[in-house]
Structure formats: C-alpha cells, structure tokens
Specification:
Elements: H1 4-13, H2 15-26, H3 38-50, E1 55-61, E2 64-72, E3 78-84, E4 105-106, E5 109-111, H4 115-134, E6 142-148, H5 159-164, E7 172-175, E8 185-188, E9 190-199, H6 215-226, H7 241-253, E10 267-275, E11 285-294, H8 300-312, E12 317-327, E13 330-331, H9 337-350, E14 357-359, H10 365-370, E15 375-377, E16 392-394, H11 395-414
Parallel strand pairs: 3-6, 3-7, 7-15, 8-14
Antiparallel strand pairs: 1-2, 2-6, 4-5, 5-16, 8-13, 9-11, 9-12, 10-11
Helix pairs in contact: 1-11, 2-4, 4-11, 9-11
Pfam families: M20_dimer (PF07687), Peptidase_M20 (PF01546)
GO molecular function, one term: metal ion binding
Pathway: Amino-acid biosynthesis; L-lysine biosynthesis via DAP pathway; LL-2,6-diaminopimelate from (S)-tetrahydrodipicolinate (succinylase route): step 3/3
C-alpha cells in the first residue's frame, strides 16, 4: 500500500515546477484550426527527455504531432493519461485584458488561451509522470502519457489515429479536460455537426421577391425547421435515471439551474451563416453551420433523419454535409475501477465528497469507449472562461488536479483485482 500523504507532500513541494511548466505551455501558441503543434511538441519532448523519460513522436498529418511517453511496468495493466496540446483561436486581441500568450500569474490565476482548456490539465499530466519517475515510485502497471494535437477541430489525427493504429491501449484512461473540482465527467452527450447549403436563383434586387429565389430567405425557413429538434421528446434508457438525476442536481448546486434538463434534450446552435454577394442581388446561395448535441435516447442517424424530413416539407433546393464531431451519447459506469480511483482521490485531496456527472458537450472520450477503454475526464478550469476572452484558471486547482493525477495513477495501477 502506497503512502498517499507522502505523495501529496511531493506534489506540494514541487508545485512551483508545475506552475512554471503550465505557464510556459501557455506562452506557446498552438491554435487550431491552424493545427501547428511543432513548437509545443518540441518543448514537451525536451522537458520529458531532460527528466529521463523517453518519448515517441508520431506525425500523421503535417505539423500535427502526437507524443507518447511511458513509465512503469509494461507487463502490468495499463493506464492512459491523455491531453490535447491545441487550443481554439484567441479571436479579437482587442477584447483581451491581457496577452493570451503571456502565461502570467495574477491574483491567484494563470492567464492565457488554453489555461482551462486544457494546458493546465496537460501540465498536470506531464508533471505527474515526471514526479513518479523522478522519485522511483513503484508501479505494478504502466502509465502512458498521450499528448494529441487536434481535439479542438474534432480531427482524426489524435486519439482516433493512435487507437486505430494500436499505438496505445489500456484498461483505463483519464483525460485532463476541464471539469468542476468535485465532479469528473463520466459521460458525454453525442454530437451532430452539419453544414446546410441552400441554393437559390439570382436576380436583380429591385425586383425581389417577384423574380429569383432568395437562398437566404429559404435558409431562414430551414433554420426554423431545424431548431424544432430541441422540442423532440427523448426517452433516456432506464439504467441512466440515477446518473441523469445526479447530473441535473449538480447543475442546480453549481448555479446552472437554467440549464437543468439539458442532458435530456437535443440542443441546437446555429453557429455561422454566410450568403449572398450584394444587397442588390437576390442571393443564389446561403451556407449555415449547425451544432446539435444529442442526449441518451437518440442517435446521430435518427436526428439527421428528422431534420431532413422537416426540410423536405419546405420544397427548397438544399444539401446537407456532416463535418467535425459526429457521435452518439456515451458513458463509463461510475463503478468502473478508473472512475473509482479518480473519485476516491478527489475526495481524499479535497476532503469533500466527489462524484461523477454527465457533460453537456462531447470530447475525445468517445473514441476510447469505442475501443472498450473505460474513461473519464477531470481537470482544472474556470469554466465560464473556456473558449472565451480572458481565459484563466486558479493556480490552486492546477495543484489539486495534479495531486489527484499522481494518487489515482498509483492507486489504479497498484490496486489488485
């Protein structure tokens, strides 16, 4: 039996190294969809190598690099620690109160793009691997670090590529995606992204609507039909009633009561609209990008079939093309050993009861479940700043999560049965 307190002391004694590591990661731009992780990959590889950990680098797409590092006993069971090195774009720099690549520490926060999603969590994973290696902590199994390059674009060159090519496998996985301090996410909604293209007939704007067919006007009618997916009654599986109830209670307790029921509904966000060429020309094309998230009780195919049925009633000229994220809702049972190891060590670290909940978004977790690898997510975050301006994360949460990562790894890999 390992001594949790001694390991926790090691984390606290080395927390400055952890925070410095996180700060340096934030200073390296790795925006996606640009998708260039060359610089951040070189930094992580050097840090691991300097600490006696060998790495393997895979480049399935130009400038998109996967990093694999392993410690422990390769003959025992395997635990994957996974994080992505890419971030969403910073957007309008004038709307930031600080440089998004400063990595500055101010008022107890680490500041910068990716602070919450998810360079702070990634730093914690890297740090936990180094700490366990540096202090020769005995592991009956193998801890595998997988740093992937394109989670934010929903691409195929990170986790899916590693799993399909059998680069990694394991009996459990933890992804350091942002979560609340006491509530790792053990399940995610599904995702249905699609691009709607509506075609019209151009004409002189002064004669509309007498001549031509306006693609923008038809697209507005189409959007109204698409948004009715939110009203569809969904019947979740009976075995998920308890998890759904716990997850909805979590929303209330964390002052998100306005979103209660989000786990049982299809959500629909019209993200972009592009149409027409000039105000005095009847628009001949309008392209709309839509993001729907799917609860348990429905599938991607069922959702798309409903949308197409509704659009066909309009008698408009349209096409639909899927892109980005595509999945049905999925989860890992709370009783699974990896879930128990993480939840128990959150409770130990924070001295408060922890429990797993559902997430209203989706993530790389779905790929691990497709390969029958139990997985959950837990990472430091200032949730309201994710993907927004002035992204930040509390320093103490970075340390807390790193402590959980260290304890959970040893617990899971050394636990019998």
């Amino acid at each position: 039996m390992f001594d949790k307190e001694k390991l926790s002391v090691l984390v606290r004694e080395n927390q400055e190294e952890l925070i410095t590591l996180c700060s340096k990661l934030l200073q390296i731009p790795s925006e996606n969809p640009e998708g260039d992780t060359t610089e951040i990959t070189a930094f992580i590889e050097k840090y691991l190598n300097e600490n006696g950990i060998e790495t393997e680098i895979f480049e399935p797409d130009p400038k998109r690099f996967n990093i694999i590092a392993k410690i422990g006993n390769p003959n025992g069971k395997k635990l994957i620690y996974c994080g992505h090195s890419d971030t969403v774009p910073v957007g309008d720099l004038d709307k930031w109160d600080f440089s998004p690549f400063s990595g500055e520490i101010k008022d107890g926060y680490l500041l910068g793009r990716g602070a919450s999603d998810m360079k702070a969590g990634l730093a914690g994973l890297i740090f936990s691997l180094v700490l366990l290696k540096r202090h020769d902590v005995a592991l009956d199994g193998q801890l595998i670090l997988a740093v992937v390059p394109d989670e934010e674009s929903g691409g195929d060159y990170g986790v899916p590529w590693l799993l399909e090519n059998k680069v990694i496998t394991g009996e459990g996985c933890l992804i350091a995606e942002p979560s609340s301090e006491l509530n790792p996410t053990i399940g995610q909604k599904g995702s249905c992204w699609f691009k709607l293209t509506v075609n019209g007939v151009p004409g002189h704007g002064s004669l509309a609507p007498f001549v031509g067919t306006n693609a923008i006007v038809d697209a507005i009618r189409a959007i109204e039909k698409i948004r009715t997916v939110t009203d569809l009654p969904i019947q979740p599986p009976k075995e998920l009633e308890k998890l759904l109830a716990v997850s909805n209670q979590y929303l209330i307790e964390n002052e998100r009561s306005e979103t209660k029921g989000v786990f049982e509904k299809i959500t629909c966000n019209v993200g972009t609209i592009n149409g027409g060429t000039s105000s005095n020309v009847v628009a001949d094309k309008c392209v709309v990008q839509v993001d729907c998230r799917l609860p348990f009780g429905t599938t991607y195919d069922e959702t798309m079939a409903y949308i197409k049925k509704e659009l066909d009633q309009l008698e408009i000229d349209y096409t639909i093309e899927s892109f980005g994220f595509k999945s049905s809702a999925n989860y890992t049972p709370a009783e699974d050993p990896i879930c128990q190891a993480v939840v128990e060590n959150i409770t130990y670290t924070l001295e408060k009861p922890a429990y797993g909940v559902l997430q209203w978004a989706c993530s790389d977790a779905r790929h691990f479940r497709e390969f029958d690898i139990p997985v959950l997510q837990y990472g430091p975050a200032e949730l309201e700043t994710i993907h927004g301006f002035n992204e930040k994360v509390k320093v103490h949460q970075v340390v807390t999560c790193a402590n959980v990562y260290v304890l959970a790894a040893v617990d899971f890999l050394n636990r019998r049965g």
